[in-house]
Amino acid sequence: MKEHPDNYDAELLLRLYDLRRESRLRQARDWYIREFRAKTYEEYTAECPPGSEHSAFFRMTITYWDMAASIVNHGLIKEEFFFESASEFWIVWDKAKAVAPVLREKFKNPMVWKNLERLAVKYEEWMSR
Fold first, then answer.
1. How would you classify residue 113: left for phi > 0, otherwise alpha for psi between -120 and 50, otherwise beta?
2. Residues in Cβ contact with 18 at an 8 Å cutoff, skipping those fewer than 6 apart
3. DSSP E strand boundaries for the chain
4. Measured in whole angstroms, how far is the alpha carbon of residue 122 from the centre of its chain?
5. Residues 2-6: contacts with CB within 8 Å, 24+ apart?
6. How far apart are CA 59 and CA 118, in angstroms?
7. For residues 58 and 30, what is the distance between their CA atoms, to the nearest angstrom?
8. How many alpha carbons lie under 13 Å from residue 58 in its C-beta half-sphere?
């Protein structure tokens, strides 16, 4: 991996920021940060019933950050550069990690949100240094 961020890192980071500004995603992220509180699968299904706006908000928020995490995990943006300006992904993971194992099992997909989980672990290590 390259030693220093370059113009490509900056362009991609700005593009990710620009996507976050889309009004519907901004609304979804706001709901997720302020209101999502599920700690169990039952609480998750109560807060985010299939077909509901909250279900859409949950999916929009978590899949956006999982996609961004994938970009960082694959080295397309230098981790430290990303960590210096983004921490919301960690909050998103922290709020979802309690329901992740059950949803992975229900979806029969052990990779659900793995990018986000991996990046959150790396972020915690980076923050502790």
1. left
2. none
3. none
4. 13
5. 2/78, 4/78, 5/77, 5/78, 5/80, 5/81
6. 18
7. 10
8. 23
Q: Which residue has the tokens 């694959």?
A: 74
Residue 1 has pLDDT above 70, yes or no: no
Q: Which residue has the tokens 């949950």?
A: 58
d(CA 49, CA 60): 14
Q: Distance of CA 27 to CAs 32, 51, 53, 54, 73, Å?
A: 9, 17, 11, 11, 26
Q: What is the mean pLDDT of residues 24-49?
A: 98
Nearest to 22 by CA among 69, 61, 54: 61
Mean pLDDT, the chain, as a whole number?
96
